Structure formats: structure tokens, C-alpha cells
Amino acid sequence: MKFSVLGALAAALLGSTVAASADPVFNRVASFPVNTNLPAGTDGKSETSAEIITATADGSMLVYSDSPLGGVGFIDITDAASPKPAGFVGLDGEPTSVTVLGGKVFAGVNTSTSYTAPSGRLAVIDIASREIGASCDLGGQPDSVALSPSGDLMAVAIENERDEDLNDGALPQMPAGFLVLLPVVDGLPDCAKARKVDLTGLAAIAPEDPEPEFVDINAANEVVVTLQENNHIVVVDGASGEILSHFSAGTVDLENVDVEEEGALTFDGTLTGVAREPDAVQWLDGERLVVANEGDYEGGSRGFTIFSKSGEVLHESGLDFEYRVATAGHYPEKRSGNKGAEPEGLEVGRFGEETLIFVLSERGSAIGVYRDTGAAPEFVQLLPTGVAPEGAVAIPGRNLFAVSNEADLVEETGLRSHVTLYERAEGVAAYPMIVSRMDDAGRPIGFGALSGLAADPSAPGILYAVSDSAYGMQPTIFRIDASGHPARITDAIRVTRAGQPAQLLDLEGIVADGKGGFWLASEGRSDKLVPHALYRVDGKGEIKAQVAFPPELLAVETRFGAEGVTLIGDTLWIAIQRPWKDDPKGTVKLVSYNTATKEWGAVRYPLEGAETGWVGLSEIALHGEHVYIIERDNQIGDNARLKKLYRVPVSALVPAPLGGELPLVAKEEVRDFIPDLKATGGYVVDKIEGFAVDASGTGYAVTDNDGVDDSNGETLFFSTGKM
Length: 723
Hints:
Elements: E1 2-3, H1 7-15, E2 24-33, E3 53-55, E4 61-66, E5 71-76, E6 84-90, E7 94-101, E8 104-110, E9 120-126, E10 132-137, E11 142-147, E12 153-158, E13 178-185, E14 188-189, E15 195-198, E16 212-217, E17 222-227, E18 232-237, E19 243-248, E20 251-257, E21 269-275, E22 281-283, E23 288-292, E24 304-308, E25 313-316, H2 320-327, E26 343-351, E27 354-361, E28 366-371, E29 378-384, E30 389-395, E31 400-405, E32 418-426, E33 434-436, E34 450-455, E35 462-467, E36 476-481, E37 487-494, E38 496-497, E39 500-501, E40 507-512, E41 518-522, E42 533-537, E43 543-548, H3 551-554, E44 562-568, E45 571-576, E46 587-594, E47 600-606, E48 615-623, E49 626-633, E50 643-649, E51 668-672, H4 674-678, E52 688-693, E53 698-703, E54 717-722
Parallel strand pairs: 1-20, 33-37
Antiparallel strand pairs: 2-32, 3-4, 4-5, 5-6, 7-8, 8-9, 9-10, 11-12, 12-13, 13-14, 13-15, 16-17, 17-18, 18-19, 20-21, 22-23, 23-24, 24-25, 26-27, 27-28, 28-29, 30-31, 31-32, 34-35, 35-36, 36-37, 38-39, 40-41, 41-42, 42-43, 44-45, 45-46, 46-47, 48-49, 49-50, 50-51, 52-53, 53-54
Pfam family, one: Phytase-like
Protein name: Alkaline phosphatase
Keywords: Signal
């Protein structure tokens, strides 16, 4: 099958990003950091993770598996907007999946000592007492656990996973996986009547070594199981263990897809014969099932597919999901050579009269919501979440939806694993706040890492942003129309030298030059041969002039250079992010460059103190008689303390020559951004990096999503009102 998303999707993206105000939509109401649920006495920096998640029947309690910490966690969501830690139960092994029946949690636990000696059990935990009760030996390493709608049958996928470092992860690697069916009697699994279902000899790929990944059960107690690495799907009768049907998940051809990890968002490649290699699977009804085509070692078709239970392809999403991720700024360019947006998790929920499909992008950290129509699903909205969404649970009785985000980056960025909650109600989708359009060839204008913002001098609501070194092979100026919600990127102006993409740039600041072009500030890094410099470009992005920092500055440089630029008369003012070698403690430079006389100068700016990490500048913008400066710490989530907007009178910007005594300016606080960064129910992101005031006097701010690298990909773009 071949899919090329062109005009139809372009029109759909422009017309359906935000649901009509009368329609019910999901909005995020809370983000719960899993590390707040650590057992007493545990080191607060211990790695922890929320992987697979489920809920009690009344929807008041969430239960999640935590592999690195080796147990099951509980979250009280009686008040969904204010989730509370509700305890943790340690298990002797690695929990891989959880489900709930009545007052019991059923957890698959991996106890394997090696890949060649897999073992595991099904543990039963009493929710009220938190005591571990019955346990069933499963005879292998469990992955997914599912409970039938009637509560009388459990299915466990025994993956017996392969060693990815052995023979490049190629199959076969014995022992083979299988499926376990367990009757449930009086709310407990009947271990003695467990049935092992042999899945060998079915798939065309490594038939002797099936690796079951995910299971789900429909109302007729039919069990569907994906064999991800084998690119196969099997449907089993839950009562007898008889295989009702099995079929290859098949392949797709993809056109206009980003296939290179080259520091640019291109969407101009082709993939042929890509195996779907599905991960999660969910029944849509008694006859249809939907799979997320994450891929594994040879495939990944970047979307989802609806099959009949006999194997007929009823719908293939092609690039629809990946393009919607890209137009919201969530596309993970560093995964282009692998599986792109990487749809891994799935959930299906019946909300009122609608059946909704939730598709989780593991690497894009976004969730696509689609409405099941019985034919081609209808896109509803895209939801933001934490890093690496892994599991999801719909709670229709409370109009809630919850997602577990497994990545714990405590050692990298300080960001912790989260559980994210959403509520469905009539209204307008708060996110995304900014989207891009499709280009004339029907491909998304990809964006991310927006690190500087500038206003059009004469057109209210029109702004320009630059992307930083995350897309070093494609430096770009983005034109933004902020007149609607969400704001829209309407054009991408590539920064070029002699018509070719300019290299060795880390664009962090932009300002209109008043003559139809722009001045750009590039943060230098001498150890990577990136110069500290200013660049003047014309309206088409071609570099017309380069102004290197003078020797007096370079003699005291550090890698944390220009983070913003503005123009006052003939003089450019550059905000330097952090103190350089000659700066007194607690100060940083605002550097000036007179474009007429070519003279350099500077003043000193007083920095707030840092409780943890560092504090620096992210932007400088002129409005009226003041320049507005973003000052922030480098902390994220609950550790964030300082994300503020200050202003300095223009009259105080009297530069002194470099190398001598510099005057210290006074500042005035204008706005605390932390409430803005919490407004969509997420954790506080660290990089608020752009601010500008448009021609009507309205302020706008934007965050840098780090190119979706160790980041949840969110770009928050919002107005601060009249200044």
C-alpha cells in the first residue's frame, strides 16, 4: 500500500486543528510527577517510571507499573486536577503491565535471570491493604496483561524478549514466546486452569520464535495478540485457546517522509515495503481492531491501521498522524532514520455516543485523538503530554483520560516521569498553541526549537521566530500569524549563504531591520567553530553581512553567548546569556553595536540568584521607552523558580567601551511567566526564550522545545496582553 499525504490532509490540518467551541474536547488538567510517590526512605533521585497504567472501576484511583523501581504505584485522582500520591507496592521483580478487577491489581512481573532463561509470574495486589496475595507462575517473561470486559478471563503475552545486542537483535532467539489464558473465578485468577497457547509456526518471519507484545480481549472473549518482531497478528478464542485467525500485519510504502537525521526537517524521502511491526492493539468492536505501528528492528510505518479480525485492512493512516505531530512542532528529527514519530501505545474509549482512538507518539510525546466513524477515522485533536508516553487509560464515566510517561531524565535534565490527566468538556482545545501549515507540495512545514521572537514593525499580530542549532542544517526564520488560536506559522524563510543553507549558526535572536530584512544573533561556540556573530539577512533570508564579535569580547568569552537582539535607532543591543570571564558575580552583559559607526560597547545587567543550577538571559525586545528582558533559571518542573520578564529604561542604556568599567542598569519586574507555563496543566518547561511586542502593543512569548530531544516537544506560545 502506498500513502502520500497531499492536498486533502493540508486542508484538514488547516480546518480541524481546534474543535468548534460547542464540541467536547480534551484539555490537560494535571501532570503528576511520579517521583513524589516514592516509598519512604527512598533516595529522591532514584530512577522511577510510569509505564503501563490502569484505573479502578470508579475512576478515582490510577495504578501504574514502575519497572526501574520494581513495583506498582497508586495515584488518588478523586480530584483529577489535583492528583495525590497514594502509595507504592514493591515487587520481587520487574512489573511489565497492570490491570484492575474489583479491589485487586493484577501485575505481570518479569523475574528472568537472562534472555535464555525467562521467567515470570502474575501477582495479585489488594488495593485496600496493599498486600500481595495470590501469584501464578507464567512459565516465561510476561509483557502485556489484559482483562476481559466481563472480568472472567485474563490474557498474558509471554514475550520471552530477544537480546537486541545479539546478532543485531535478529530473530530467531529462543526460547519462543506464547500466550497464557487464565480463567478468573470470584475475582481471582485460577492458576491451576491456566492454558498455554502455542503461537509457533504462524508468522512468515521467524515462525519458530514468536514474540507476543500486546494483548486485548473483546466482549466475546476473543483475544488479539500482536507479534511485533514477527510482524504478525493472531486472534484466539479465549475459552478454548483455539486460534481463530492469524495474518501478517503487512507493509506500506511511504512518500514525502523525513528519513535522514541531518539536523533539518525535510519530509522529502521515500520508504518502500516498510513492515508495520505493530505494538499496541485494541478492539474497536467485535469485528475490528486497531494497531499502533511502532516498528522494531526492521519496520515501523509511523501510523496506525484498522484491521478486520480476519486480516482485511479497513483503514491505513499513512502519514496522517506523523504529519499532525510535525505541524504541532513535535516531530523528533533525531528519529527520522528509525521510526519517526513512533506510535507505540493505544487506547480506545467510548465517550457518550463516540468511540475515540488515542494514538501515542513515544518519541514525539504527543497523543492523536481520532473519532471512529466505522470507516476512515476522523481526527479530533492533538494532546501534549510528558516525555515518552507509554500507556493510557480512558475513564469515560468521569470524562477523563490518563497517560503514563515513562522517561525519567533525572540525570540529564532533571525532568521526571509523569502521569498526565485530561478532562473532556465542551470548550476549546488549549493546545496546540501554535501550528504550521502544509507547504505547496502537501508536506508539513516542520518547526521546533523556537529560540527568539520579533515583531513585524507595521503589521499587528505578525511575528517572526528563529530556530536554533537543533536544526543546524536548516536555519530558518518563521513567519507567525498570531491573530487566531492557535497561532499559525505561515511561511518558513531559510537562512542562506549564496543560496545554500547557511552553516555554523546557532540562531538565538531576531529583530526586523526596518528595511524589509532582519538582524540575527548567533550564539557562538569556539570549540565547535561556531562564531559569536551578528548577521544581516534580506527578506528572503540571504545573508548580506556578518559582524563578528570584537577581540575585546572574544578574549573573555564562554560558550553561553548571544540569546537575543533588538534594535534602538542605529544600535543593536545583544543579551548575553550568562556571565563571561570578566563579569562581576551576579551580573551579565548587554552588549551594543552601532551599525553606523561600527562601535561596540556594553552595560551590566543584575541577575537574580539561583537556588539550583544557573540563571541567565533569554531575550531582549524593545517597546516604547523600555527594553524587555527574559531572565530564567535552567530548572524544570517543580524545581523551576525563575521565569520572569523584566524591563530596563532605554535611557539607562548608555554603553561604555569594552574592556573597562561598565555601568550597571536597574531593572523592574514586569511578569512572572510560571503561571503562564502552568496554564495548560503541564509541568514548567525550562526554556522560555522568545518575547516581542507587536505593532499594536500586544506582547507575545514562546518557549524553545529543544528540537524534541530529551523534551516533551511542547511549544507554548501565548499573549501577555497590552504592554
